[in-house]
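Form P-L/3: holo structure prediction, ligand zinc ion.
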Amino acid sequence: MAVNTNDLMNTIVSLAKRRGFIFQSSEIYGGLNSCWDYGPLGVELKRNVKDAWWRAMVTNRRDIVGLDASILMHPKVWEASGHLTGFSDPMVDCKKCKERFRADHLENLDKCPKPKCGGELTEVRKFNLMFKTFMGPVEDSSATVYMRPETAQGIFVNFLNVQQASRLKPPFGIAQIGKSFRNEITPGNFTYRTREFEQMEMEFFVPPAEDDKWYGYWRDARLQWYKDYGIKPEHLRLRDHEKDELAHYAKACVDVEYLFPFGWSELEGIANRTDYDLKQHEQHSGKGMAFFDDESKQHYYPFVVEPAAGADRATLAFLVDAYDVEGEGKDERVVLRFHPALAPIKVAVLPLVKKDGMPEMGEKIYRDLLDNSIKSFYDQTASIGRRYARQDEAGTPFCVTIDTQSLEDQTVTVRERDSREQYRVASSELVGLIQKKMRESMR
Ligand SMILES: [Zn+2]
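OUTPUT (holo model):
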């Protein structure tokens, strides 16, 4: 498919709106910059992405447990983590057009980069990326709290709570999915870079001597996860951070990158954070954060390997990668080839006509699917071709059609999204068949 990459992104943004994946926030008021709302299909897709992550990281593992920490935390957390002093971008303002720019993104700090402006720029100033608010009724500095800029710190401050409550010893991990907030100067590229976003982070605590081994393990495991859920391998790569890109406490870091229409961009970072965070919190809180090893009778600070992924970025990558246009002219179809586990709707139930008992049979099949927690959709309007097209565009892997023969022998036609292959099955066996297909897609 030869399309200009900008066109591709625009096409996906408009499809996302039209089909109810993603809407602009507060659209009737003109929208709010970089804020987006997930519609009926989008919320299912994103939930499925988060569920797939949680299964891989928590449910299916013996060595990782979950956590759901609060968004607002004690301000000293951000002092200890370095976010209060270090989490800022160097900014300049144009004195003429008043626009603000990241100083490190400009080639020339003498004049405004906008061609028609060319105004004089201010001195470089540091701009902290944390959102600030006040706790309680008094708006003064003693009441200042911050919206967390990452979920990781909620894990670090709970390290010993979780370790002792679950009686785990390193190597073990704590995983969390939740919202974070960064007052980015230049958000953009649809849901890729936003000021409010959802993270999927896991901190894996290991004996210091095992850090390299586990860093290698999580690099491979996290890249593989995107492939397992259908992203084309040629659209994925690992990019090691250069020494000068590394956070001062990090020993190594690698990004899982995806080839978006706007270029290679980070989906997830895997970092060896060493024992920096636990030691920082010990120092700032005065509470011991070391792990006591029963066997050696010694305290030590575990090293931390952190795979930190963006739920919105992953969702966007799965959406972009699933998009396909097949055929030409009147045979052309737009199809979202989602992995069945990620598809917002698994089955569409389509009576061929709106009479002769077909809707009644369709209704019964639909009810049966829903009773088995198979997210399904019932549609008896328009021609069958139109209805297939709508489902292809929503990424629904299976369509089930009820026709005249169905009323005679209680069979239905199953049509598969990708191959368009069609076959008949007894309606009583439909739920079992879909469950089997879903299970097989997970291997
Ligand atoms: Zn200007």
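COMMENT: Residues 40-59 form the longest helix (20 residues).
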